[in-house]
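Section 5.1 Outputs to date
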Amino acid sequence: MIAAAILAGLVVLLAIGQAEWGAQLRFDRWLGGAIVGRPHWLVGTADALGSSTRDIASGAVVAVGVALLWQRHRLWAQWLLWSAVIGFALQTVLKGVVGRPRPDWPDAAFHLTTPSFPSGHAMSGIDMWCVLGIAMLCAPVGGRFPKVIGALVIAIGVLMGPSRLVVGVHWPTDILAGWLLGAAVACVAAAIVLRRAT
């Protein structure tokens, strides 16, 4: 829980900084300007990754993961379920509370109008996809194939955040906040499961 509190505290600083600190905005503009739409050949791949991992797809991944793990590895399944539910609820609330506008990059593939902070893709990449990948790597689900899938799922989860910057729909600190908050949620969910198990 200490780790979760530290990570959440960093997210609060980022949320305050996006409105108050010019240095953070300058950093966002500098890094975003260097990455958005570049390299050009990667934009289509980044868009495909973002489209294929939207909320419905992430929900399907969680459902399949819980179904696979529930019979023999119930604690792993509960960790995934708690992490996904808490994460989705928290990102929805935070987007409304912070209300940060989306960036308007000239090279952006899309121009969205929904709130930008934190990046939901970056957050669910950690609190859903990476949690599932860790469970598949660590739970003795049998054979090498689940471990390969687990490593692939973790890679997808980590790349979901940067993919949103390449297509130009987030500020860099939105993605950083999503990663930090996703990790905080995963820690909280693990603590809940362990406490209920004892």
